[in-house]
Amino acid sequence: MASDQAIGKKELESIQLDYFLEAYEHATSVGLTRIIIPGLENPDFVVADEEDRVLGVELTKLMRSPEEQFFTRVIRREEEPDSYGQLEQMHHLIAKKEEARTKRYVAKVAETILVIELVDGTLSSFMYLLEELAGEYSDHGFAEIWLVDYSDTDAYGNVELFCLYPEDKWGIYERPNAGTKSYG
Fold it and tell me: Fewest beta carbons less than 10 Å away: which of 102, 105, 121, 147?
């Protein structure tokens, strides 16, 4: 039974990328198509836009450790992670991924989009902190940085985006099906 088999990490990343690419096109009116470059392992994926510009897409997850999840959910009875903790972790992830980008694949793929996946909490839980950060992410080498909220993918089949960089795209982009009836 295929439905009983565990999904592999690369297959899951591929599904998450598809959600992002669909929402990205809705938000920016720029379609990105996945391409294969033999022998290239980093970044996670490579895409091309309508003008054949090649971009890397690096996925990373913003989530609490299992211990922190247990403490927050069971002991404190709070579902959402600490907003300031999420923000601090997000800064750490951007720095970590920038270091990896410059060391591993900048020569192979010059421009990369960083996709920070929110899988443990929602974008709305720390949106008020993000509003103060406009213009704060210009000191890295990523072409773009996006936060992607996957919390409603089961119900609505799409994701919500927040662009952290570049400044001309800064802000939140609602889901294509926002306000519609969920599946089921």
Answer: 102
Q: Say how many C-beta atoms besides its own lie within 10 A of residue 179's C-beta.
A: 7
Q: How far apart are CA 136 and CA 90, in angstroms?
A: 13
CB 40 within 8 A of CB 108: yes
d(CA 18, CA 24): 10
For residue 60, count other CB atoms closer than 10 A to its CB: 16
Please give the model's pTM, rounded to 2 decimal places.
Answer: 0.82
User: 177 vs 11, which has greater pLDDT?
Assistant: 11
Average the pLDDT over 76-86 and give the result: 71
Judge whether 54 lies within some domain: yes
Please, what is the Cα angle at 165 between 159 and 170, to 5 degrees? 70
140 phi-psi bin (left φ>0, alpha ψ -120 to 50, beta other): beta
Decide if 123 contacts 149 (C-beta within 8 A). Answer: yes
Sign of the C-alpha dihedral, residues 181, 154, 149, 142? negative
The answer as to whether 78 is a domain residue is: yes
Residue 106 domain-assigned?
Answer: yes
Note the pLDDT of residue 79: 65
Residue 151 domain-assigned (yes or no): yes
Domain total in the chain: 1
d(CA 108, CA 145): 19
